[in-house]
Design brief:
The chain is α+β, with helices and mostly antiparallel strands and 155 residues long. The chain has one domain: 2-Layer Sandwich (Heat Shock Protein 90), CATH 3.30.565.10. Strand 4 and strand 5 (138-145) form a beta hairpin. The chain has four helices and five strands, in the order βααββαββα.
């Protein structure tokens, strides 16, 4: 209970973190603005390049928006959001009270108005996944490597 699910070592960023933050937010759209500001400031202070900051914020906000839209809040009526900035990677995570279905990267029809978010997460992340605890809590995480996307951003 309250114990963070184990993530295999291959999915963890560098052991030495320059920033590690985790907090509980309301299960509401207003939390997106709070996360974007706080994470953006932390990423800037940690010296994360602009192109990677943009990708990290996009992934983190997509995971949070999905939790707000599709999942139940945790027992304390919130959603836990966190990020860890390491020397080689940035890991982001969102933990909620679970949903009837597991998040998957879909392939919506061309005219669909939604359903592309986790495909973006998959494209931008070096790795991502979903873990569901016995208590129904669901943790969705993604790892973005500092070198990932640098060549695409440069042209």
């Amino acid at each position: 209970m309250g114990k963070k699910p184990h993530v295999p070592a291959a999915h963890q960023p560098a052991r030495v973190s320059t920033v590690h933050r985790s907090f509980l937010l309301p299960c509401a759209p207003s939390s997106l603005r709070v996360v974007r500001r706080a994470a953006g400031a932390d990423l800037r202070r940690a010296g994360v390049p602009e192109h990677l900051r943009h990708d990290v914020l996009l992934v983190l906000c997509e995971l949070l928006a999905n939790a707000i839209r599709h999942a139940s809040p945790l027992v304390d009526d919130g959603i836990r959001v966190g990020w860890r900035v390491g020397a080689k990677a940035v890991e982001v995570e969102v933990t909620d009270g679970g949903a009837p279905t597991m998040p998957t990267a879909g392939r919506p029809e061309a005219m669909a108005l939604s359903g592309r978010g986790l495909a973006m997460v998959q494209e931008l992340s070096g790795d991502w996944g979903v873990e569901r605890g016995a208590d129904g809590q669901q943790r969705v995480w993604a790892v973005l490597h500092r070198h990932h996307g640098a060549s695409a951003a440069g042209g």
